[in-house]
Amino acid sequence: MEFCNLTPFDTLCYGALDPNDDEHQVIAMKVGYRLARQAGGSWQAQVIDDDPVPLCVGDEFWAEPGESSVRQESDLAPFKPKCDVLVIGQAYAPGGRAAAQWETRLRVSVLQARPPASVYYEPKAQWQPGRQRYVNRPEAMRTTAKALQDKEEKVLLDKRLWILAPHAFRRHLLAPGWKRTPAQPITELPLRWEHAFGGTSIVRDAADPDAGPLLNEVCFSNPLGCGWMEKRDPRASRNARQQDGCEIAAPQIVPPGEPLPAPIVAAHPEGPCDAMRMAELAQAYGAMPAGYGPLGRAWAPRLAQAGTYDDAWLQSRHPGLPRDIDFHYWNGAPADQQVPYLPPDFCLEAWNLTPHATTGGYVRVVMPGHRPFLLMRMASGVMLPLPMITDTAILDTEAMTLTLTHRAWLPAGTPAIRALEARFEVDPAAPLLKRAPSRPSALQEA
Fold first, then answer.
1. Do β-strands 226-230 and 247-249 pair in parallel, antiparallel, or remain unpaired?
2. Closest among 347, 403, 370 to 156, alpha carbons compared
3. Which of 135, 200, 339, 430 has the smallest number of Cβ neighbours within 10 A?
4. Number of folded domains that form the chain
């Protein structure tokens, strides 16, 4: 099969295996849009076709891999059951004025035809045998047409998070429990998991710093964050002294409501835990990390979706996928940011997630309805259009861009394809398959 990219966008055709070891072809295309402010304060998505956004072929991190938040994940996933809606960048205090806390919000919606509860209408004439369908037919057609034209908004995602200024939990020598330190107002905060609930408990031997740690435990749901410690951590002891480090940073990105009054102290069993056990322990913490960005692949509960990699897999399946893999593993967004595949004309709104150039910290953009698709030129001579789905949307609040990853699959057993063409239709009303203009005959030319 010949693959040809007829778009200005970065597009790749690659193979992937399913759990049955059947190879299928995957086509991924990445399209970027600049969010340009228009007169009156509205925003418009303008496609970036002069300097296309490249596909991400490997996970990218903000700093050291594994020791910092993921900036974006590889686009070369074999399949995503849902669409990831993600935000990278920063949150901004309203009006650019330093604040101790403020609310952020992300909302995605679509307009869809309102399904008529019924096309019943009140007949204008009494029932007449043999003539009723003709007497009321115009009224019936008008009622049905109106029902199809009416559209209603369907909200796919509406998420709010609070941003808190830096503060800490401090255990005083005389007062029982933990106290929150005063917050220092800020104007912006990076949207990274380092500022959300999570953390590590690492204790080294003061007499031999080069030796292995005496305690090395991490929060299974977010090892990068703050506000968590393991119960064997000396900081969790009631006898801990202030000069010995009885202060721990508090999360700054939190769900709406009361923030944590004290650090979460969790009890981990000694010895290794499998992915399912890690997910159970993380669920029992009593708090979950909050954020808008991609989760780590090795974090709970996402890791449990990757399947079982044990001795049996090593002997009979390696390097293939485990039989029990859940393809939701490839969705890296928080669960409440995984939505059905987005239509070409979805609407995205954000509050206090964009720079001060936005009016009141608010931006709303309706996508222009562009449609990526594949034209399959079958070996039989038939031509078939295959629409691509949108399974990743990333709002970059610093660059003020929105990038979309589109994908399509050709499962094993697909009839022979002579050529596969990646195309991009910018007219929302145009058919994907157009008839070529006919040439005038010699008689017409004469």
1. unpaired
2. 347
3. 430
4. 1
Neighbouring C-beta atoms of residue 23, cutoff 10 Å: 11
pLDDT band at residue 145 using 50, 70 and 90 as cut-offs: low
Can you tell me whether residue 337 is helix, strand or coil?
helix
Q: Is residue 300 part of a domain?
A: yes
Predicted TM-score (pTM) of this structure: 0.88
CB 432 within 8 A of CB 387: yes
The whole domain housing 351 covers 2-112+158-425
Nearest to 191 by CA among 224, 239, 217, 220: 224
Residues 6+ apart with CB under 8 A from 87: 106, 191, 292, 293, 350, 353, 394, 395, 397
Query: CA-CA distance, 395 to 289, in Å (whole number)?
Result: 20
pLDDT at 147: 52
Torsion sign, CA atoms 196, 280, 202, 232: positive
Instruction: Please count the other Cβ atoms lying within 10 Å of the Cβ belonging to residue 407.
Output: 22
**What are the tens digits of pLDDT across the range 358-392?**
778 999 999 999 999 999 999 999 999 999 999 99
